[in-house]
Amino acid sequence: MKLDSRRERLLKHTFLDFRQTAEFLEHPLILNRAEGLYCWDIDGRRYFDAISGIFVATLGHGNLRVLDAMRRQMERMTFAPPLHGVSDVTLDYVEKLGSVTPAGLNYVKPFSGGSEATEAAMKFARQYFKQTGQPGKYKFISRYQGYHGSTGAAMSASGTGPRKTKFEPQMPGFLKVFPPTHYRSQFSSWEECNRFAARAFEDVIIGEDPATVAGIIVEPIGNTGGIITPTAEYFQIIREICDRHNVLLIFDEVITGFGKTGRMFAAQTFGVTPDILCCGKGISNGAVPLAAMVAREDFADAFWGRAEDDVQFMHGNTFAGNPLACAAGIAVIDEIVERKLVEHALEIGEYLAGRLESLKRYGVVREVRGRGILRGVELVRNTNTLQPFPELGIALKQTALENGLILRVDPTWFAVSPALIAQQADIDEMFELIERSLVQALDRVGGVPAIA
Ligand SMILES: Cc1ncc(COP(=O)(O)O)c(C=O)c1O
Known about the structure:
Elements: H1 5-11, H2 21-26, E1 31-35, E2 38-41, E3 46-49, H3 52-55, H4 64-76, H5 88-98, E4 105-111, H6 114-130, E5 139-143, H7 152-157, H8 161-164, E6 174-177, H9 190-208, E7 213-218, H10 232-245, E8 248-252, H11 266-270, E9 276-279, E10 291-296, H12 323-338, H13 341-357, E11 365-371, E12 374-379, H14 390-402, E13 405-406, E14 408-409, E15 413-416, H15 424-444
Parallel strand pairs: 3-13, 5-6, 5-7, 7-8, 8-9
Antiparallel strand pairs: 1-2, 2-3, 4-10, 9-10, 11-12, 12-15, 14-15
Helix pairs in contact: 4-12, 5-12, 9-10, 13-15, 14-15
Pyridoxal-5'-phosphate is lined by residues 113-115, 118, 147-149, 219, 223, 252, 254-255, 280.
């Protein structure tokens, strides 16, 4: 894509997320239209959006039901202050979201983005302990390679070094353990490795003193580490640890929520119910900013009292529970449920995984990970040494764009998460673009495709 001087100048007057504009200008991508599984750049070139925006447009871009719901709401009211009033549609959304979350999780606070939801969850946990007789519990344990957002506590809980070290020192009271992938070469089975990684949470809780630990926050499937997908037992062990030490379990389902893993939430996929669930991204299909924190209903008691008791959740945002966003959110859930898209994601996800597995014949794929339509592929120099292959990822990002394909490449792995509406023919089209781009990328880095 060739940029005109005005757009180039304007790009220099803004920031992209987490990336250098000078590098972006070498291969710029400016989009101006999106529909279903595709988006188009300003030159009219079409791209298969294999990552649904960025894990967002789960119903496909421009879902009509969502847009109609927003249009209707726009005619009535687009803003109500969550301070001295609340909109009727916000309450409808509380009911709607609470009807699809795991049992017992239906104390709902809508927000405008994933970082707001995780930040609120940690504040909620701290305040909960302060007013239930355990004011010393304030620490959080999370994982290296995890990402929970860009605000203070969310960033402190994140374990992605380069995204946070520039802002250190981080907030005190945030500790980390490694995800299971970190230890896998030291164990003879993935299951045993997961048991070890899960138990590390308890070691830290005991080492820190359980009376000081408020919560564990984890992504059920970790995107930033390369679609890290632990065993169900890993989460069961963590759940038991939390119960033993009265520590709240927070699932950050900003990516995994709303059908991607083959159930509405990954908590259901892994069969473990957290105390607080944070969601965002696919929650509004990207039509308007929306996110939510959903806590266990019985926690509500700790925040209920007379005004002079001063126990209300001392937190808020101007756009929290915005009526337009809530109208979109209701339509998203109705669409997912009525079109049985969760069940479809489970089925089509198996097909997608099978196709991605076939990339192993090129000798540079270590593993295909994930659940449902959320899948990741780890790239290695060769499958004996298992050395990472970042040059291949960097080349792949480029060849994919040249082939009209948008992927998430990091660069030792790549992820795909097409919209839940994708059919087998769409998966085939996407896979052929991936395979072609991978072969071209291998060629560019001088790797010989070792087709088995
Ligand atoms: C797992 C996870 N949590 C939280 C966030 C933060 O969400 P947002 O960017 O909407 O603030 C993200 C964003 O990518 C995420 O992937």
